[in-house]
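Reviewer 2 asked us to include a model.

Predict the structure of this chain.
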Amino acid sequence: MTENVIAFQGEPGAYSHQACRDYRPTMEALPCRTFDDTIDAVREGRARLAMLPVENSTYGRVADIHHLLPESGLHIIDEGFVRVRIALMGVPGTRLEEVTDAMSHPVLLGQCRGFMRRHGIRSVVGPDTAGSALEIARRGEKPLAALAAPLAAEIYGLDVLASGIEDRQNNTTRFLVMSREPDLSRRPNAQGGATMMTTFVFRVRNIPAALYKALGGFATNGVNMTKLESYMVDGIFTATQFYADIEGHPEDPPVARALEELAYFTSSLHILGVYPADPLRALQAAGQS
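Predicted model (structure tokens):
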């Protein structure tokens, strides 16, 4: 039943699949080949929700995703943070000292350099994290292992030879849950927190100091802007679009005043979603993660 399906990009066992399990555990996860396919699955009614990664604490924003979100026609209804916990996995019966090579996506390989160097394991570039685990299961060769989420070992029947081997223990990926219909209601997060987030994209008018003037309303109204990024539109240097996250709900008086001031200095303004802040935000602010 499509109403109980959430789409994600990648093979089963990918970190996006883990995000689906963590934040929508009762829903069936639907793997898709690309981000476009993931979005289309929701637009075409094959899934009710999409789980899309937008940024990583180590490597920054996910390529192309900011271009896709405004054009997707979907709305952000939730966010989730997934710790990138990396496991070395091999065919059943393999011992760690038998492994000579490990396959994974280049980004993940770069996050385990210390472990790989200590154990004399060579890096092998694979299609992606879960896809590498699938390939290792197919080959059945003890000297060749995979680096992926522990979930991939569970799915493909591999043994976890070492876990928590990432160089940075706080590496985290932020995901957005997207839906065909917006949800503008005020609602608590999983731990009952009341902080709401609003995400929007905008383009400034072609006037001097337009960006400075456009953002002034957030400062004067005490609205916390947690993210602001710019990117070119259609490959044109003069066509710049901005992506922003702020704390608060559009109906909060300070937010409403700031958005009204922003609209005056912009040629376009589109709210992508209103959703509860993940509990990890408060922990990060308190220096506990």
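The first helix runs from residue 15 to 23. The chain has three domains: 5-84+171-176, 87-163, 184-287. We have added this to the supplementary material.
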